[in-house]
């Protein structure tokens, strides 16, 4: 167990259960807030070791009803990613509950110094993403799509119940996300959204997901980070190696992680997608990849509309993109109806 030797009031010292998972014989010499989070408190903890060296840790603290799920999501997601790309993920250390405050829970990891302002170049960014996907491909613990726990996007639980079909898994998640989006807006009527929602499930999802698992094709689950916006991917202090964190992991179709790179909200775009395809082959049917990319982009846009319902622009953004997908499918259907019939 470590000791908190800071000159602070006793009630400000670190909890006994947290000290128990810090290095044996270490002395806590500094605890500072670390970054910003809308849902958890985060801290940088510096520990002086018996040999005089120091080690720094990152703590994420969750409290209240959501607290246990938030820290469990962080620990389980980061542990899974660390298994496959330890050079790109801070080493998870512990998950626990305060002894002095049973309503407070913590996730502890090694602290990694990062460069805050720079968005990594496509080559660095996508090398880490491709490594996660390639090394984990086919290693789902059940061989199915899902995850051992329900992870969190922000503070929103994600239903990760194990499922054998990718289309079934993704359809279930999209129904859940759209239900939450509707609830976040107090069921406020939106006729266009309701029209498009029906067509999304009747036409769009079957059109672009079912071919992945038809005619002898299949989707091999790999580990997905599922929140790869630039705030969660930074250069380490060396300015070369990328650090990925704050995953809300699941075992799924690797292309899900590419949806964020299409989102105009982030300064990423085609150079990052092109770099990824240098490392990982496009799923068949290849001609559908652009439409699948648009479809997977919807996930993040819908969830942002759930988290920030007061910003109605977020709702209109995903509604417009849903409309484009519906129109694309309907244009395909019209072209097939009007195609010349060949009689043998």
Give the key terms.
Kinase-like_dom_sf; 344 residues; Phosphorylase Kinase, domain 1; single chain; EC 2.7.1.172; alpha+beta; 3-stranded antiparallel β-sheet; Fructo-/Ketosamine-3-kinase; 17% strand; Aminoglycoside 3'-phosphotransferase, Chain: A, domain 2; 6-stranded mixed β-sheet
Write the H/E string, N to C. Answer: EHEEEHEEEHEEHHEEEEHHHH
Tell me the domain tally.
2
Query: What is the distance, rounded to the nearest whole angstrom, between the alpha carbons of the first and last residues?
Result: 81 Å
| CATH class division of the largest domain | Alpha Beta
Structure class:
alpha+beta
- Contiguous helical run count: 9
The CATH topology of the largest domain turns out to be: Aminoglycoside 3'-phosphotransferase, Chain: A, domain 2
Pfam families: Fructosamin_kin
GO molecular function, one term: kinase activity
Keywords: Kinase, Transferase
EC number: 2.7.1.172
């Amino acid at each position: 167990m470590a000791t908190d030797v800071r000159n602070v009031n006793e009630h400000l010292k670190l909890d006994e259960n947290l000290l128990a998972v810090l290095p044996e014989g270490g002395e806590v010499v500094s605890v500072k807030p670390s970054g910003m989070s809308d849902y958890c408190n985060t801290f940088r903890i510096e520990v002086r070791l018996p040999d005089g060296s120091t080690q720094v840790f990152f703590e994420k603290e969750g409290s209240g009803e959501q607290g246990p799920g938030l820290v469990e999501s962080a620990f389980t997601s980061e542990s899974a990613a660390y298994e496959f790309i330890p050079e790109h993920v801070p080493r998870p250390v512990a998950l626990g509950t305060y002894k002095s405050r049973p309503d407070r829970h913590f996730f502890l990891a090694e602290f990694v110094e990062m460069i805050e302002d720079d968005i990594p170049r496509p080559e660095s960014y996508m090398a880490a993403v491709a490594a996660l996907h390639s090394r984990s491909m086919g290693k789902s613990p059940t061989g199915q799509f899902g995850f051992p726990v329900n992870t969190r996007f922000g503070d929103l639980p994600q239903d990760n119940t194990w499922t054998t079909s990718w289309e079934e898994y993704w359809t279930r998640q999209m129904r859940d996300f759209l239900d939450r989006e509707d609830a976040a807006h107090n069921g406020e009527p939106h006729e266009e959204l309701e029209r498009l929602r029906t067509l999304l499930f009747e036409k769009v999802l079957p059109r672009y997901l079912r071919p992945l698992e038809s005619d002898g094709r299949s989707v091999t689950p790999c580990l997905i980070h599922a929140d790869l916006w630039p705030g969660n991917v930074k250069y380490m202090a060396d300015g070369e190696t990328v650090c990925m964190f704050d995953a809300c992991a699941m075992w799924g179709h690797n292309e899900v992680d590419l949806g964020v790179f299409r989102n105009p909200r982030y300064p990423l775009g085609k150079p990052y997608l092109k770099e990824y395809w240098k490392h990982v082959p496009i799923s068949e049917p290849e001609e559908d990849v652009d439409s699948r990319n648009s479809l997977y982009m919807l996930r993040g846009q819908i969830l942002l509309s759930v988290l920030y319902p007061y910003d109605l622009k977020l709702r209109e953004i995903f509604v417009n993109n849903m409309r484009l997908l519906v129109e694309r499918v309907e244009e395909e259907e019209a072209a097939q109806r009007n195609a010349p019939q060949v009689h043998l």
